[in-house]
Target: Glutamate--tRNA ligase
Amino acid sequence: MKGSVRVRFAPSPTGMLHIGGLRTALYNYLFAKGHEDGVFVLRIEDTDQTRYVEGAEQDIIESLKWTGMEIDEGPENPGEVGPYRQSERKEMYAQYAEQLVEQGQAYYAFDTPEELDQMRERLKKSGNPAPKYDAITRMSMKNSLTLPQEEVERKLEEGEEYVIRLKVPRRETIRFEDEVRGFVSFESKGLDDQVLLKSDGMPTYHLANVVDDHLMEITHVIRGEEWLSSAPKHILMYEYFGWEPPKMAHLPLIMSPSGGKLSKRKAESEGIPINTKDYIEQKFEPEALVNFLAYLGWSPGDDTELHTMDELIDLFSLDRVSKGGAVFDYKKLTWYNEHYLREKPVDELYPRVKVIAEEHGIEPDEEYMKQIIPLMKDRVSKIEDFVTIGRFFFEDPEGYEDRALKKWKDNSAELLSAYVEEVEKLDEDEFKAKILKDKIKEVINAHDVGFGPLMMPLRVAVSGMGYGPDLTPTLELLGKETTIHRINTAIEKLG
Model:
């Protein structure tokens, strides 16, 4: 079998790939690729057909590709241990469930949904706040442990509906070492007799997960903290099958800035995109999202923060993953995005900016656009800002931002008129940033004011905004005619 280290990312196609799922995939990927012949497997856990969402599997695959994670084995490029969709592996699970029944470590349960509800109601009334089907209750239920053997055989022969449940021991301590949390122990009395095979013949997550991880020779299971409570059931099954369990690592939760787990509802209320698809549609840089997510629960142990995927692969280790939850800081993600945008050469950014400009009804001239991009680089957080914030490079401002108007003072029109007088004397080839800056100095010296009283209204006049790229190179790029026209318009409108 290829790979001394084999990990799997095993999402359910019940919706678009959640940002937490993407981080789990990333940690698996970094861990696998940090080992010489490590293998990253994508397995689609689609046993719950009632919750299947059309297009979800494709979204998962496209999201991984977008971030630069290459899938070594999966539905699109199968290896030796396929199929890689659990719904296509259905036949193999039943035999393993039956094996546990034969060994006396699982049993057939024939209880109807109504009988299960009655049991829960009965236990609640007798003071049990969280009733479950376990070592105590199983003996009063309708299953192959309580029914006579011939009746069990008759029910099976007649095709009566049943599930197969794991027979969890009543008093046992289940202990294992977690790669993130150290030694973890659970008391079996807190566990229910987990359903392994449903009445439709489909396995539950728990059975399919254990069987597939074994058959696919997965060496490390790296997954979210929410699966930690299921781990003891999985450990029991490995023991019953006589298999070596993979090493396990349970990753910390992603927390909301306002506290608690970052749920869909919380994310929406805090303006945080929740699915990877949203980040793609909002044109985030994939390198920024990868770098940000890597640090959401892990750090290399020094002050560095900026790393390419290859560097992260070299640095990543499970012993540096934190146990406590990691807070999703949207401002930090924006900071990463700004960094990666600035790092990109103009020739790489231009085709993307051109598409956005065309979507906004602007037909950009290539040479002109390639002068705007470097000028705007330090002012943009996302690639579309080149067009949305930089729209004034293509058309006169339709109005003036309220915030910007606060920069317009009683002497603004007078100072701008004086500036127009000075720059009107310049020839087109003299209309350069350095000379334009000198003219600003001349006007403010003549009127005995600082830079602000002229620079601020000048920016408002040419862009309609109170912020933007370096002012005099902006004027040079706009040209003499446009600059003077916009200043005169602002004087006229704002007085």
